[in-house]
Amino acid sequence: MFAHETTHLGTAFKQYFEVVPAVTEELRQEAYRIRHSVYCEDLQFESQQANGLEMDEYDDYSLHLLIRSISSGLFIGCTRIVRPLPGDDGKGLPFEKICAQTLERSVIDPSKLPRDKIAEISRLAVISAYRRRKGEQNSPINISEQDFGNEPTTRFPYIPLGLYYGTVELARIYNIEVLFMLTEERLANHFNKLGSRLEFIGAPVEHHGLRFPSMIVISHLLENLKPIIRPLYQAIAEDIKAGLEGKNPQKTEIYQP
Q1: What is the pTM of this model?
Q2: Buried b / exposed e along 197-228 (16+ C-beta atoms within 10 A)
Q3: φ, ψ dihedrals at 221, nearest 5°
Q4: H/E element, 139
Q5: 3-state secondary structure of 66
Q6: Tens digit of pLDDT for each residue in 214-239?
């Protein structure tokens, strides 16, 4: 599936990238700047802001994550975990509103799950300099078919997987059991080739392109990680733990594959 060099994905990841939980306001503003660059300036999904920060009402109740380039020292991507607002007040997570008419509730009904055990992945974004490959310019993050060939380790999709698995590990630490997201079909299929176990849970909706409501059951994903992926996940989990030390999360036991 991958070139020989990719059999040590954890070691290789640490050479190129670092996953950083955005546990301070300064770090969160780095995420908001990346989001503005991608969603407001490049893709024009959202209106540009004078302060250069893309924010919304969910940010105060979200867990934020960054990925940094080791060579440049710059933050190059971000994502967040949106948690239900305190009391919820019937508002629901963003995808629950967007997909209210298309969810297949016989598969799963988010409204019937414990609200403290669910969350939504959103605002996955990578700055343009790191998504210049053909077909990626019009998407905030991507994996391509070329990522599954016999290419060198540097061609492996470390950035999207660093953000994706970093999000899963951060959610696990905060006792979240089910993650939802809206995703393009192609991206979901590529993630699943890598063992990510995204499951469609309803018909697609138009939301800056056609998006499918999807879910990840964290325990299922971790139980079924491909052996080649486990060192990568472990390396990312170590970054998450280091970033949370001293910040008093609910628990900080590192994932052991």
Answers
A1: 0.84
A2: bbeebbebbeeeeebbbbbbebeebbeebeee
A3: -60, -45
A4: none
A5: strand
A6: 999 999 999 988 888 899 999 999 99
**CA atoms of 46 and 36, how far apart (whole Å):** 8
The H or E element spanning position 162 is helix 158-173
CA distances from 118 to 92, 113, 133, 175, 187 (A): 11, 7, 34, 9, 22
The strand pair at 178-183 and 118-126 is best described as parallel
Q: Give me the residue label for tokens 């078919």.
A: 145
Tell me the pLDDT tens digit for each residue of 151-200: 434 457 889 899 999 999 999 999 999 999 998 887 777 776 766 778 88
Report the C-alpha gap between 222 and 237 in whole angstroms. Answer: 12
CA distances from 95 to 113, 180, 181, 235, 249 (A): 15, 8, 7, 30, 26
Here the tokens at position 109 are 């009904």
Contact residues for 74 (Cβ-Cβ < 8 A; gap 6+): 68
Distance separating alpha carbons of residues 126 and 187, to the nearest angstrom: 14
Beta strands in 1-142 (DSSP E): 17-21, 62-69, 75-82, 118-126
Cα gap 215→178, rounded to integer Å:
7
Name the helix (H) or strand (E) containing 250.
Answer: none
How far apart CA 143 and CA 256 sit, in angstroms, is 26
Q: For residue 179, give the H/E element and its range.
A: strand 178-183
Tokens representing 226?
A: 């491909």
CA nearest 211: which of 158, 116, 140? 140
